[in-house]
Specification:
- The chain is α+β, with helices and mostly antiparallel strands and 720 residues long.
- Strand 19 (689-691) and strand 20 (695-696) form a beta hairpin.
């Protein structure tokens, strides 16, 4: 199942599995039931996209089943003047099509609607019959025939002709009939939009001093009562204000959430309650960003006169602690909080250049203690990773300080992810830096750990699997530590991250792309890997630096740690017999030897012989790679050249050394040989090798998929 289809499948099941009736499939095969559920969910999702209804309303419109006459879902506009008749097709491979037979069934259903012949439809449609009649009675009603496909949405000329004729035949005299297609790209876009925070609209009344600036961008600064801020956060507190509170969502564009009842925040609560009139003088104020400011005047239209501002898509980008403190104080004494005023600066982003809002957020966050980690919260990469976690894995990924870490089985935090990626990186110095302080993880720019770990956005699966290994290493070391004392225990304590680093190097980055079953085997071997690495490490500390060396300073030295890594890896590769350095045959018997990943792209190309054996390939580095290793590549032109071998495991024959590799494995090998110290953690080999004149391996594979979807290839040719 292609990744995009996996995303859609997971999202549809989460949204509709408990909303759509499947009573007619209770005794059917589970696989058949799921396929039917997904087809119905596709029709409901199309209704949500087109009719702008909620999930329950869309599910209630599903009529798929016996006596549906080619209509799987019915949806209505909010005004009651528009109707959507939806037929849906699901295919696990994303290759669903819509032929002339399906088109004729849909048109047959339209005819029955037009003739008001609804009595023969199933009971699900009967529940909607009154609404259907209400729409069709309108002389200017609009009916939409919808084709909802888990595919590319292409229709044959014959199919389009059938739908065009139906639209022409049933339209006229003020009534409109049209047809439209909702395809796989539309569904994927919709589920990604579902993950976006819903826009917040705030109202701010300034009935005291305020002033405005119109150029170059609109901004309004003035005094706002603290109880208004409390309502922004928690909704109605007293009086007749029914505005809904938004809680932590107020800070979606801030660098962090509220931090709870810290000492600073408790001081603000006490200040509002004990001396509300003086609070304005002791506080720096807050900053709000919004897409647009609409201003209404209570009486005289002039600066300084009472006014109410409506802020569209607003977010508190500085002052999260202040707003939350106002809410807490308001719960204790609303009357006192209503007397406290706060200076609020509101900035409209309408017409501003790209990046302007982010720069304001970063610059204004100086009142409370700031950590380097706080500023990654406004990096778009982190938001994309969070979406990828939800779509690909159905797991949580949190990256703002103040958010609760998810349960271990439910996801991870950015700190845990960064620690795992740092240990996985080829450069052991990252693990050494992290041991000194996790603040090192968030340094950006050339050589900065954050840029090296997240500069080329790693995928959710890669991060999650790295975290799984990191946790296993940590747990195994904890267990082994109870059996150690003295110097070996000190090595286990101080060298924990270096052990994780070496285990990652033994496993290999390519293993992170293994199939689920193969990955389970990799994880099962991690405890033995940890034992082997730790025993070797304990031995090598004394061998390289004598038994009198300081363990703490040894593991704080990047140079010494690099020597230890090289020595331990060499030792573990040196044999398992009784004459091995540690004389422990059992040490390596269970060590996992990772197999080269067979990437989905490669499997597809090989299985369909899309590229002939010996076809020349060329390396296509990104601008960053070209800058970093271009000189090394140019030193031997053969380094940029390879040829194709139709083998699932190692399809690329590198001209430079005559050896075969996987695409990802070869790119990683090249980076290592070029000694690129700042290389990314994420490697995307199939995107970096191309056939001259035809495109990258990924592009060739995508064209092949499109031909399969169009029927030019047989779908069941070993694509599972």
């Amino acid at each position: 199942m292609p990744l995009e289809v996996q995303h859609i499948r997971s999202a549809l099941l989460r949204e509709f599995e408990n909303r759509i009736s499947m009573d007619d499939f209770e005794k059917k095969d589970p696989k058949e039931r799921e396929t039917a559920l997904l087809s119905r969910a596709v029709s409901a999702k199309a209704a949500r996209i087109l009719a702008d209804c909620n999930s329950d309303e869309a599910a209630a419109g599903v009529i798929d089943g016996r006596d549906d006459f080619g209509i799987d879902c019915v949806a209505f506009s909010a005004s009651g003047s528009e109707l959507w008749l939806i037929q849906a097709k699901w295919k696990d491979k994303g290759t669903a099509g819509f032929d002339t037979e399906a088109a004729l069934k849909l048109v047959h259903g339209l005819k029955k609607f037009d003739n008001r012949d609804l009595d023969h439809f199933n009971e699900r449609l009967q529940l909607l019959a009154d609404r259907v009649h209400g729409v069709l009675r309108l002389p200017t009603c609009k009916v939409n025939l919808v084709v909802a496909l888990m595919g590319d949405g292409r229709l044959s000329t014959e199919t389009r002709n059938i739908l065009d004729e139906a639209a022409h035949e049933f339209g006229g005299l003020g009534r409109t009939v049209e047809y439209q297609v909702v395809d796989q790209r539309d569904f994927h876009r919709a589920i990604r939009e579902d993950l976006e925070p819903q826009p917040i609209t705030l109202k701010a009344t300034m009935d005291r001093e305020w002033y405005t600036r119109e150029t170059p961008f609109k901004a309004v600064t003035g005094e706002v009562s603290a109880d208004q801020l409390a309502r922004w956060y928690g909704g109605k507190s007293n009086g007749a204000d029914h505005e809904k509170g938004h809680g932590e969502r107020l800070y979606d564009r801030n660098v962090r959430r509220s931090l709870g009842l810290t000492g600073v925040n408790q001081t603000m609560v006490d200040s509002m309650l004990e001396d509300p009139d003086g609070f304005l003088y002791r506080h720096n104020g807050i900053t709000v960003q919004c897409d647009r400011i609409e201003q209404e005047y209570h009486s005289k239209r002039a600066v300084g006169q009472p006014t109410t501002l409506t802020l569209t898509n607003a977010s508190v980008v500085n002052g999260a602690q202040t707003v939350t403190s106002a809410f807490r104080a308001n719960e204790i004494n609303p009357e006192a909080v209503a007397e406290a005023y706060i200076l609020v600066r509101i900035i409209s982003l309408e017409g501003t250049p790209q990046g302007f809002g982010r720069s304001i957020t970063k610059a204004t966050n100086t009142q409370n203690h700031m950590e380097r980690r706080d500023f990654i919260a406004i990096d778009a990469v982190q938001s994309e990773i969070q979406k990828d976690f939800r779509l690909s894995l159905d797991k949580e990924y949190v990256f703002r300080r103040g958010e609760l870490d998810p349960a271990p089985e439910s996801g991870c935090s950015v700190t845990e992810a960064a620690m795992a990626l740092a240990c996985m990186h080829r450069d052991s110095s990252l693990a050494v830096r992290v041991k000194g302080s996790t603040n090192a993880l968030w340094i950006e720019g050339p050589g900065g750990a954050y840029t090296r770990l997240f500069g080329q956005q790693p995928g959710a699966q890669q991060i999650w699997r790295a975290v799984q290994v990191f946790r296993l290493v940590r747990d195994q070391l904890t267990e082994l530590r109870t059996k150690l004392a003295g110097r070996p225990a000190a090595v286990a304590d101080n060298g924990a991250l270096l052990v994780a680093h070496i285990v990652f190097q033994r496993i290999g980055r390519g293993s992170l792309d293994e199939s689920d079953g193969e990955w389970d085997d990799v994880l099962a071997g991690v405890p033995e890997q940890v034992l082997a690495v730790l025993v070797c490490l304990i031995s090598m500390v004394d061998t390289l630096f004598t038994s009198k060396s300081y363990v703490t300073s040894t593991f704080a030295s990047q140079e010494r740690c690099a020597q230890l890594v090289a020595a331990v890896l060499s030792m573990l590769e040196g044999g398992t017999g009784p004459e091995s350095p540690l004389k422990r045959k059992a040490l390596l018997e269970s060590a996992v030897q990772s197999r080269q990943r067979r990437p989905q792209t490669v499997r597809l190309l090989v299985d369909h012989e899309a590229i002939k054996d010996s076809t020349p390939l060329e390396y296509a580095p990104s601008p960053v790679e070209e800058l970093a290793i271009g000189s090394w590549l140019d030193a031997d032109p053969r380094r940029r050249r390879a040829s194709w071998v139709n083998d699932r495991k190692t399809p690329i024959l590198w001209e430079a050394d005559g050896r075969r590799y996987s695409p990802t494995g070869l790119v990683s090998q090249m980076w290592n040989e070029a000694d690129w110290k700042e290389q990314w953690s994420a490697v995307q080999g199939p995107k970096q090798w191309r056939v001259p004149g035809e495109g990258t391996l990924v592009e060739i594979a995508e064209r092949l998929w499109r031909r399969i979807a169009a029927g030019d290839e047989t779908e069941d040719r070993n694509l599972e």
